[in-house]
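Board notes, transcribed. Complex of a protein with adenosine-5'-diphosphate.
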Amino acid sequence: MSGPSMPAQMGPLALEVRDLCISFGGVRAVNRCSFEVPETTAVGLIGPNGAGKSTTIDLISGFKVADSGHAVFRGQELIGMKPHEISKLGLVRTFQSPREWASLSVLDNVLVGMRGFERESMLGGMFAAGRQRRAEAESRQRARDLLEDFGLTRLKNDAAGSLSGGQKRLVEFARIAAASPSMVILDEPMGGVNPVLGERIGQAVRALVNQGSSVIVVEHNLRFIEDYCDLVVVMDQGAVIAEGPYESLRDNAQVVTAYLGDVEHA
Ligand code: ADP
Ligand code: MG
């Protein structure tokens, strides 16, 4: 499976980011940024404030247009595509504040995420009402399984809008997982989250990987990166300065200077 350009131990790539650049006025916010995300892997994207992390995920997800460079998702060039076209390919992202259907129950939020499956099963239903009922029952069962995976069973009948920030984020993750995306990009999932829920959020990332998704997580919390990400990409001044398993970066002087040192001495 692995191509000649890949390190031998890596699986096939979900995403290849190559030489992405964008400037705002005179500022090179992203400057020849390159990294790779293997299939079914959680990659932590870290770096000091202003390193270009948010801009990089905006470029990948189509919310900003790169001046030059590539983001190739399962063989498809994303640069130049609109955000909704990219999400249709199975690459979805979250924003720093969670988005939920506030008036719907937690269970219904997850069922909304499955609409893609239901539409298909409805067509089948025109030929066999029994099959439709079975498909609906299957959707509900899968939704209940996801609620269990994401620690939301107890809240399934609550209105999503009434939950805490961390719980809303879990609902958003469960809704995203319901659509079985190939790739998920999470922008600071631990931001403003009660530490008790932090572990749940981490388990949610692993649940996404276990169901076959690749994940990019922008996160300041290094403990979270160490515990839940398979690989780390370190950005500084718009470029990638190091990448690899967290353990391999501890002794990298450039990384420590750019980032880890700042945090540990803070
Ligand atoms: P990070 O997410 O790593 O903190 P950003 O991607 O937000 O970094 O920002 C990278 C650099 O680009 C910063 O210097 C920031 O001030 C600048 N920048 C980001 N967005 C804009 C914008 N829309 N206009 C001007 N400068 C911007
Ligand atoms: Mg940012």
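Residues 1-8 have pLDDT under 50 and may be disordered. The two ends are 44 Å apart (CA to CA).
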